[in-house]
Amino acid sequence: MPTRVNFDPRTKLIIVLLTTLIFILNISFMIEIIFVIFLSCLLMLNGNHKLGVIYLVIFSLLILCNLTIFSEINDSWSILGSFLLIGGRRILPTLMAATFAMTNTHIGEWVASLQKLKLPFNLILPLVIVFRYFPTLLNNTKAIFKALKFRGLITNKFELILHPIKGLEYILVPILVSTDTIATELSSVVFIRGMGNQMPHTSIYANRFQWLDWLVIVVSVLLMIGGIVI
Amino acid sequence: MTQQQSKIKELVSIGIYTAVYFLVVCFSTALLKLTVPIFNSIMIPALNALLAGIVYLLVLDKVNRFGALTTIGSVTGLFFLITGHFPLAFVPGVVFSLLADLIQYKTQLNQKVKLYLGYTLFSFGLTGPLLPLWFMKRAYINELASRGKSQAYIDHVFSAITSTSFIVCIISILISSVIGMMIGLKIYRKYFAAQEGSINADEG
After folding, report:
1. How would residue B129 be classed by pLDDT, with cut points 50, 70 and 90?
2. Cys staple from B124: which of A14, A55, A182, B96, with CB 3.0 to 4.6 Å?
3. What's the average model confidence in pLDDT over B41-53?
4. ipTM of this complex > 0.90?
5. What would the mean pLDDT of B163-183 be, rounded to a whole number?
6. How many structural domains is chain A composed of?
7. Could you tell me if residue B201 is inside a domain?
8. Terminal C-alpha separation, chain A
9. What residues form the membrane-spanning segments (chain B) (predicted)?
10. Is A78's pLDDT higher than 60?
11. Is residue A183 within 8 angstroms of chain B, CB to CB?
12. Do A179 and B20 touch (CB under 8 A)?
């Protein structure tokens, strides 16, 4: 079933924010269950069928544990355990919203949407660089590990945890020395691609609200209002 | 045109340093998740303050302009916001990095005092991820109340956890950011001071 709906990144952002609000306000148990089911439907529509089911299973397991094992709260162990369970149940919707936001959205779509939201260019460009550079950074770190092993300075990664300051020096200093070159290269790339242009940018991503986006937003707002009232 | 080019280079450098800072955050989070089983998020800002001193120093060195630190704080906050892990982390991230910026560039303090004070404030920007703990606590209290526990009992359960953890968190950030800045300065003098040398934090 290859059906997949393209949501506007702004819808995704709104869902993340609303989920946070719901996480802060104390909503009733019924609404919480409905909201989690709603989020997993969104995940499935977005193309992550497996994840949507996994999150639902985790949620029901958490509720089950809470109702059976920790139905009596008297000693300190059950206090700690039930605190962690309830906390985990509360955090789960936020994680689901984050998965919904991060997966199946191209970075160009994010840039186009953030520009439509009138975010300053001084914030968008560093954010794009973070997204673009972070995978490279992880690769570089792996290469540094290899080089350190090759030269016999460390034997395994746990040695770095035992001597954190030495590890910091060995890992961070090469990265920071290389940043200067990388900054020059990336800034010329940015310049050539015309991202510094002052005029409004165009994008190949249309990013318009469709009826499904409106529907999702209206339903989640209604759920939140219902959660406050009931 | 060259002015715009240099501005773009500054912004790109800020992005790259944010990524490096984020790597340090990930490293300290992973380290704590592996070693301390529960309530480890309380210690994340402190451990991070211990490790990230050199990144802070190099940002001051390379992008010596008001606004660089604020941008890093806001971008880290935005990254949190989009990934949704700790959406409320946005607020302390912006506020504390702005304060650090103000201290670095708008006050007439001694250079050394500025460095230590600014870095301590900047480290507090990561306290945003701790906010969920407080909200989880409220949800838990509601649950206890609905099970018919008395208010006195609930207060008794939580009085120790909140006040001690809060104070421990703040003091640990203060101590470790001072130590972290010392380590950062040491590494800076060893590797970077000869190349750049715009930060002069030697005794005197």
Report:
1. low
2. B96
3. 82
4. no
5. 84
6. 2
7. no
8. 37
9. 12-32, 38-59, 88-104, 116-136, 156-185
10. yes
11. yes
12. yes
